[in-house]
Design goal:
This protein is mainly alpha-helical. It is built from 18 helices and four strands. The chain has one domain (29-432). Strands 1-2-3-4 form a four-stranded antiparallel β-sheet, covered by helices on one side. The termini are far apart.
């Protein structure tokens, strides 16, 4: 009987752990530490998998197995610099930068699309114009490659969040919502989607996250969804006329890629559009629960196309198994929870909107990539954030994480805690300055409010 009473009195493991988890999450800087931990671990996993996927191929190409990972490590270092800079910038500076980043993205995208149209550049091809190497998705100068579409994501976060924050309650009117937001969004959709429908889908999700955080009415999302689907349909149809990497009088490659995942594998052409999907699925099957071991996967050596980029998740599944895939899914889940937590706790409208947009962008892109690899979603050619090989994509993503880190430090409780026990001055100079203290709440007045007629003309103008 005593043992029975002891078992009944002893709380379950979940009840013992939940208070500890709640206690950790209740700490002022928990959002900041969760963000740094999840993004940092994803970056380390990405560097490891890029080295595993490229070492033998790089050695066969130039006799140096570390050439590809060295380039990726440089991009990761530049990404950490971008993280450090964005973490230090105040919100007012980020808001001012929005229109300049947007202008640069529009100019670069316009130049890229114009060259692609005039030169009829197809996939895996490039043309040099005035010392600039132009390909379907990037611009390169002196060996430095930039994807303008990645810059467009960051521009929409900064410019869109600033615009919506300034409009405030006026967003309830269609005229205020439509001008100038919708024309700029439509322009970016065309410029980005002409070559890359997958990135356009991420941009659409980013806009939806912005408007959702702003509390826009549901009917606006319905109208935006109709416009987005119409635009996607037009861009898919335009591939038959030569848009993107399409060619006239040839099968529409965009339709084939977007519908391949619906075709059963036994009826899919292994030498055509389904080749990448079949090989990626084979790598997942080979991995099993625990994988074949890091660096021991065989399908990445020429069997899985774009093994270090679009389909790096299949290589992760082959070498680290279901366990490794689950770890990556858990880290992205923590990143999603932390980003939306920062948005919910931010008192500044710009920080709240930008945090929601950044989180939506990174999470939706990860879902589209992983869903395409496992066959649940169409293959769009999007990289997996922080893990796939790439330069500008990684740098821009790390800059976005830096902005989220700045917003996490500016949460009311975090700002009070940091200012109550400030770090040494050299730490603030090297790492990040102290966030501004939140404005104190005004006490609720018990006096009756003044009528509109009693307000003087001068006071009304000052308002």
């Amino acid at each position: 009987m005593a043992d029975d009473r002891t078992d009944k009195a002893r709380p379950s493991l979940s009840r013992q752990l939940l208070p500890a988890v709640h206690g950790l999450l209740a700490r002022p800087l928990s959002s900041y530490y969760l963000l740094i931990a999840s993004a940092g671990m994803l970056l380390l996993i990405g560097l490891t998998m890029v080295f595993s996927a490229t070492s033998v191929k790089a050695y066969a190409a130039n006799g140096n197995a570390f050439s590809a990972i060295s380039s990726q490590a440089v991009y990761a270092l530049l990404g950490l610099v971008a993280f450090w800079i964005c973490q230090r910038l105040p919100a007012i500076t980020l808001r001012a930068l929005g229109k300049y980043v947007l202008g640069a993205a529009v100019v670069l995208l316009s130049f890229q699309n114009l060259v692609v149209m005039v030169k009829h550049i197809e996939a895996q091809e490039s043309e040099r114009v005035a010392g600039i190497s132009v390909s379907l998705l990037s611009l390169a100068v002196g060996g430095v490659s930039v994807q303008p579409s990645e810059l467009a994501k960051l521009a929409m976060v900064l410019w869109g969040a600033d615009l919506i924050a300034r409009k405030g309650a006026a967003l309830g009117h269609w005229r205020e919502l439509a001008m100038p937001l919708f024309p700029v969004v439509g322009l970016l959709f065309v410029l980005v989607g002409y070559n890359d429908v997958g990135t356009m889908l991420v941009l659409l999700a980013l806009i939806v996250g912005l408007l959702w955080a702003a509390g826009v009415r549901l009917r606006v999302f319905g109208a935006l969804g109709v416009l987005g689907l119409t635009g996607i349909g037009l861009l898919i149809a335009a591939a038959s006329r030569g848009a993107g990497s399409g060619t006239s009088e040839a099968p529409n490659y965009r339709v084939e890629r977007l519908t391949a995942f619906l075709t059963p594998l036994d009826k899919c052409d292994p030498g055509g559009t389904c080749y990448q999907l079949i090989q990626g699925r084979s790598a997942i099957f080979e991995g099993g629960w625990f994988g074949v071991g890091l660096g021991k996967g065989a399908l990445k050596w020429g069997w899985v196309p774009e093994a270090e980029n679009d389909f790096i998740y299949s290589i992760l599944a082959e070498e680290m198994g279901v366990v490794g895939c689950t770890v990556v899914l858990a880290l992205f889940s923590v990143l999603a929870y932390t980003g939306f937590r920062i948005a919910r706790r931010s008192t500044d409208p710009f920080r709240r909107l930008a945090a929601a947009a950044i989180t939506t962008w990174l999470v939706v892109q990860a879902v589209i990539n992983m869903g395409g690899v496992v066959g649940l979603l169409p293959i769009t050619g999007l990289p997996l954030p922080f893990i796939s090989a790439g330069g500008s994509a990684l740098i821009v993503a790390m800059a976005a994480i830096g902005m989220l880190a700045s917003f996490a430090r500016a949460e009311p409780d975090a700002a009070r805690a940091l200012n109550a026990r400030p770090t040494p001055r050299w730490v603030r100079l090297v790492w990040a300055p102290l966030p501004p203290l939140p404005s104190p709440r005004r006490p609720v007045s018990t006096k009756p409010a003044k009528s509109v007629k009693s307000v003087g003309a001068g006071e009304g103008r000052r308002r």
